[in-house]
């Protein structure tokens, strides 16, 4: 039995010594940039990592063999909260904790034999990486893409930091899953909204992205075409704009709602009998997150009457103005007209006793909203809607919008759901934001020549779990102003770690470049990434930010690429016993244990064989053992290889396998390619002698999945060089014969029939008699030795009309074309 671990170590050493996976720009070769989302360096790799990297490595190896110039790098998303938490809880240096983990994970990756170009390794916590985060930040600042403002922000008390909207999931922190509250702070933002239209429109260019991811990004950007309708406030005479995407319901409006953050709220209620109730409502609302306030299934509707009335411009009706928790100042105008055709408005009106009326019904007949139990949200025919009555409500949207503009009741408007990206974090272990606060000069950028702004050593900071550790480091904070040379304070916020991962794929193109974040010439050769692989959980956060960065860097003339990733594969989860692997369920399988027991090729091959990449993979210990046996079987075939010439039947099977496996590889359906190889191994196993050409083809096709064993057997056949660098076999159409395939299938079916009968009989037959139709007799005679070898018994062949036929039980009359009759004795 082959020692697959010993073989793996041998070839990993040879690959590293020869540097065969190092990538270099070559204008004569077609490039292929293959990349998995770089990992956060926690203590060990899990099965999700193994699947991710096995997918990427199989593809990189295949493309290399297909003649592409392949870039396949690896690095580490090394800043972040877990390292800081380790420092707080265990008094561990976060930098040491991070590097220890990087080294441990890197060893595991090397033990698996992944074909990375390790010369390009990056880690975002290195000064020569985060220096360029700071450089890009200043460039964004100069272009108006980075700015600072007071804002109500999402605050995670547990993590002690601000979260971007995208990092709040159902009112909870995306990382620790604890409740998120709101807080007002002065923060740094990236103006991603400037690129909202581009980010939305260019989704159509992403032909090879999963539709699910594209839908999620479209919804997050949330472009809405609507109308700003101008309502006049009766008591003050001022005009307030309300944004709606449903101007067809304007005649149904019975109240206006305003966000609690809108300064008009306090202005209108100050000194009135409505002030106390308004302040109490605002206090309650502040305890809710934006997600809770805006979710249709969110918490109870909270609001109050503000003592003001608006005049509906289309019919002159006087309607009350309320403050409501479900209106947010960041979307639209902060004022919303409310009516009986929106369920949220309907529930609010019922709670606060506001009158409602319908203007849409199925057939255009008047219906009474007072007796309704829910909003009428279906489409239908308008009534009580002036000159638009009798029209289909959807068909009326455009003419109503035009009419409002003409009458100056409103104007057409476009709004986006996406908000600017809040990048400030109150943490130590991140990239320092390169600005200085001067009492005289204001906010001053650090000079480019003074970068990187380095993090102070951890022992200079206090990690208490409260506040930002950088604020406790006097030597970091106290600086001179670059402008006036007076006393100043350094910015203590660090950057959201999603900044690091928004351009790391560009740094891989020239990781040692020191004149900028990356060498433009090299980036233009390698970019965009041809195949990106990672989890669906990054559909909005990382993938949207990376797209924004690429477009912003393009506009800074730093790169030509318009989109970062041409193809995206979101791999499915690895589960066991029907559930996600977790320590609490006790169903975690450690990749290191599998490697130690079976060798790295076994784990890699099983994980690619068990399911399509996008589907869930159910880990199965028996399946892993079966994969190990398969590799041992491949190894044992080597002893049966001969220098004989392959006949037409073998060539048919070989070229058919090459064709089918190649197509599956191109489609990234690796499990289908492996199924072809299992069948091919079955076929070769049945041969008395295996032609060398046929066995070499097996090794070439298997090499992306089980590279160590294939290198070993390739060498044993007397070949020079590495199979990893060999040419992928091409199929010859002329060698593929449907007739030969039909005959081969007849033999396989016959063997299967005989084995089925053998399971039923109690005695062990010594001979099998086959009764074939006359024109199939020769085919069975030609395969007689093969049948004997595979079935382990003597084989006698007769045509049903042979004069000397031996047929003691009259079985011959049951023979049919393609299905001989059988008799065992």
Describe the fold and architecture:
- This protein has 825 residues and is an alpha/beta fold.
- Helices cover 37% and strands 19% of the residues.
- The protein has 26 helices and 35 strands.
- Strands 10, 11, 12, 13, 14, 15 and 18 form a 7-stranded mixed β-sheet that branches. Strands 2-1-26-27 form a 4-stranded parallel β-sheet, with helices on one face. A 4-stranded antiparallel β-sheet has the order 6-5-9-19.
- The longest helix has 23 residues, at 738-760.
- The radius of gyration is 35 Å and the shape is globular.
- The model has no long low-confidence stretch (mean pLDDT 94).
Derived from helix and strand composition plus strand pairing, the structural class reads alpha/beta
Mean pLDDT: 94
Q: Main sheet?
A: 7 strands, mixed
Number of strands: 35
- Radius of gyration, in Å, reads 35 Å
Q: What percent of residues adopt helix (DSSP H or I)? A: 25-40%
Shape: globular
Beta-strand percentage range = 15-25%
Distance between the termini: 37 Å
* Low-pLDDT ranges: none
Total helical segments: 26
Task: Write a compact overview of the structure shown.
By secondary structure, this protein is an alpha/beta fold. A hairpin with a 5-residue loop joins strand 10 (223-233) and strand 11.
């Amino acid at each position: 039995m082959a020692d697959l671990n010993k073989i793996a170590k041998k070839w990993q050493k040879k690959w590293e010594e020869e540097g065969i996976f190092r990538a270099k720009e070559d204008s004569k070769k077609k490039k292929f940039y293959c990349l998995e989302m770089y990992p956060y360096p926690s203590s060990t790799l899990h099965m999700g990592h193994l699947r991710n990297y096995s997918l990427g490595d199989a593809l990189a190896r295949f493309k290399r063999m297909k003649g592409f110039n392949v870039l396949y790098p690896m690095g580490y998303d090394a800043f972040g909260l877990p390292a800081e938490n380790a420092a707080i809880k265990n008094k561990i240096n976060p930098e040491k904790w991070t590097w220890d983990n990087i080294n441990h994970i890197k060893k595991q990756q090397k033990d698996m034999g992944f074909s990375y170009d390790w010369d390009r390794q990056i880690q975002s916590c290195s000064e020569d990486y985060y220096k360029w985060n700071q450089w890009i930040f200043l460039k964004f600042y100069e272009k108006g893409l980075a700015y600072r403002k007071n804002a109500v922000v999402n605050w995670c008390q547990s993590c002690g930091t601000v979260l971007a909207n995208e990092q709040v999931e159902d009112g909870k922190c995306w990382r620790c899953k604890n409740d998120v509250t709101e807080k007002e702070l002065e923060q740094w933002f990236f103006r991603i909204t400037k690129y909202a239209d581009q980010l939305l429109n260019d989704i159509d260019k992403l032909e090879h992205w999963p539709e699910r991811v594209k839908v999620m990004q479209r919804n997050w950007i949330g472009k809405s075409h609507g109308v700003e309708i101008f309502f006049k406030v009766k008591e003050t005479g001022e005009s307030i704009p309300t944004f709606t995407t449903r101007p067809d319901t304007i005649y149904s409006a019975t109240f206006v709602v305003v966000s609690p953050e809108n300064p008009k709220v306090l202005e209108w209620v100050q000194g009135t009998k409505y002030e106390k109730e308004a302040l109490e409502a605002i206090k309650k609302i502040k305890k809710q997150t934006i997600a809770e306030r805006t979710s249709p299934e969110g918490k109870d509707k909270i609001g109050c009457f503000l003592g003001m009335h608006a005049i509906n411009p289309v019919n002159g009706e006087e309607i009350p103005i309320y403050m409501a928790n479900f209106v947010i100042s960041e979307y639209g105008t902060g004022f919303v007209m409310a009516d009986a055709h929106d369920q949220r408005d309907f529930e609010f009106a019922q709670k606060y006793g506001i009158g409602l009326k319908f203007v849409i019904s199925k057939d255009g007949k008047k219906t009474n909203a007072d007796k309704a139990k829910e909003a009428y949200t279906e489409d239908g025919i308008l009534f009580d809607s002036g000159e638009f009555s009798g029209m289909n409500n959807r068909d009326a949207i455009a003419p109503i919008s035009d009419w409002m503009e003409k009458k100056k009741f409103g104007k057409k408007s476009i709004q986006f759901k996406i908000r600017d990206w809040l990048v400030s974090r109150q943490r130590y272990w991140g990239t320092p934001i390169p600005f200085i606060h001067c009492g005289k000069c204001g906010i001053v950028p650090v000079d480019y020549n003074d970068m990187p702004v380095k993090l102070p050593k951890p022992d200079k900071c206090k990690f208490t779990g409260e506040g930002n550790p950088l604020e406790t480091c006097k030597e970091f904070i106290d600086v001179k102003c670059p402008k006036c040379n007076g006393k100043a304070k350094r910015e203590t916020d660090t950057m959201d770690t999603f900044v690091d991962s928004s351009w790391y794929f560009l740094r891989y193109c020239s990781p040692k470049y020191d004149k900028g974040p990356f060498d433009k010439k090299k980036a233009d050769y390698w970019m965009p990434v041809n195949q990106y692989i990672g989890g669906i959980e990054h559909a909005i956060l990382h993938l949207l930010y990376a797209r924004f960065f690429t477009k912003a860097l393009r506009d800074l003339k730093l790169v030509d690429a318009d989109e970062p990733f041409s193809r995206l594969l979101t791999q499915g989860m690895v589960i066991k016993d029907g559930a996600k692997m977790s320590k609490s369920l006790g169903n975690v399988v450690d990749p290191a244990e599998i490697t130690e027991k079976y060798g790295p090729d076994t784990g890699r091959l099983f994980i690619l064989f068990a399911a399509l990449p996008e589907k869930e993979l159910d880990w199965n210990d028996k399946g892993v053992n079966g994969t190990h046996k398969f590799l041992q079987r491949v190894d044992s075939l080597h002893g049966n290889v001969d220098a004989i010439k392959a006949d037409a039947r073998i060539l048919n099977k070989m070229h058919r396998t090459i064709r089918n496996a190649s197509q599956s590889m191109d489609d990234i359906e690796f499990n289908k390619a492996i199924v072809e190889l299992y069948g091919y191994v079955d076929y070769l196993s049945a041969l008395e002698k295996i032609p060398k050409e046929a066995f070499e083809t097996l090794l070439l096709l298997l090499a992306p999945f089980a590279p160590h064993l294939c290198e070993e057997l390739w060498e044993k056949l007397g070949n020079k060089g590495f199979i990893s660098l060999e040419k992928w076999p091409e199929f010859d159409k002329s060698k593929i014969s449907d007739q030969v395939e039909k005959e081969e299938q007849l033999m396989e079916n016959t063997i299967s029939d005989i084995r089925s009968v053998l399971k039923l009989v109690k005695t062990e037959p010594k001979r099998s008699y086959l009764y074939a139709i006359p024109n199939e007799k020769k085919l069975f005679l030609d395969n007689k030795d093969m049948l004997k070898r595979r079935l382990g018994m003597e084989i006698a062949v007769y045509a049903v009309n042979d004069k000397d036929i031996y047929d003691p039980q009259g079985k011959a009359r049951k023979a049919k074309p393609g299905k001989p009759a059988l008799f065992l004795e």
